[in-house]
Write a structure and sequence with these properties.
heterodimer, A: mainly beta, four-stranded antiparallel β-sheet, 11 strands, 0% helix, B: 110 residues, mainly beta
Chain lengths: 114, 110
């Protein structure tokens, strides 16, 4: 257990539905990252926050995706109008700003879109 | 986008043997890290090597870095069944955004 938690661990949804995932980072970590991992591949960066500010977004993050980190604590990742191609593991990680590369990952949320 | 390739994609060895996996990357880096992922779970940080380092050890792990060839290797000595997992290299810049390789799946047979 790294101290980063994610909820839910598994989500099955029908195409077209909206889903929201939550990540609770290690409490003193000011940076929070979201990654997506498809089967047999390494994680791919989606976006990251420093405190409540979203500083970078990958082009993988289409208009259907939105991430927030109100108050600089937990973060949510919402996917609207889900598509089968969104099926993946969504990983959250956190770090201290001064050691941004030393990231602690949560267990992930596995999304299956049917 | 993936940073590069990992080699081999899959590796099967007997307990007690050494396992070596390689990673190549494309851009200049500040550091390179190795992570382990057990089936269907999150990633666990194993070791970080900075761009000005050539070799680093941690327990049964040895990592080398050759910046001229843009490559790194991870050696696990005296492997155990519990080492069965996928191993990923990741490169990071100043923002902390990590770019991962495609991973090597290691199976250690008891």
């Amino acid at each position: 257990d790294t101290g980063v938690s994610q909820d839910p661990r598994h989500k099955i949804t029908k195409r077209g539905q909206n889903v929201t995932f939550r990540c609770d980072p290690i409490s003193e970590h000011n940076r929070l990252y979201w990654y997506r991992q498809t089967l047999g591949q390494g994680p791919e960066f989606l976006t990251y926050f420093q405190n409540e500010a979203q500083l970078e977004k990958s082009r993988l993050l289409s208009d259907r995706f939105s991430a927030e980190r109100p108050k600089g604590s937990f973060s949510t990742l919402e996917i609207q109008r889900t598509e089968q191609g969104d099926s993946a593991m969504y990983l959250c990680a956190s770090s201290l700003g001064g050691r941004a590369y030393e990231q602690y990952f949560g267990p992930g949320t596995r999304l299956t879109v049917t | 986008s993936q940073q590069g390739e990992e080699d081999p994609q899959a590796l099967s060895i007997q307990e007690g043997e050494n396992a070596t996996m390689n990673c190549s990357y494309k851009t200049s880096i500040n550091n390179l890290q190795w992570y382990r992922q057990n089936s269907g779970r999150g990633l666990v940080h194993l070791i970080l090597i900075r761009s000005n380092e050539r070799e680093k050890h941690s327990g049964r792990l040895r990592v080398t870095l050759d910046t001229s060839k843009k490559s790194s290797s991870l050696l696990i000595t005296a492997s155990r069944a519990a080492d069965t997992a996928s191993y990923f290299c990741a490169t990071g810049g100043n923002t902390g955004k990590l770019i991962f390789g495609q991973g090597t799946t290691l199976q250690v047979k008891p």
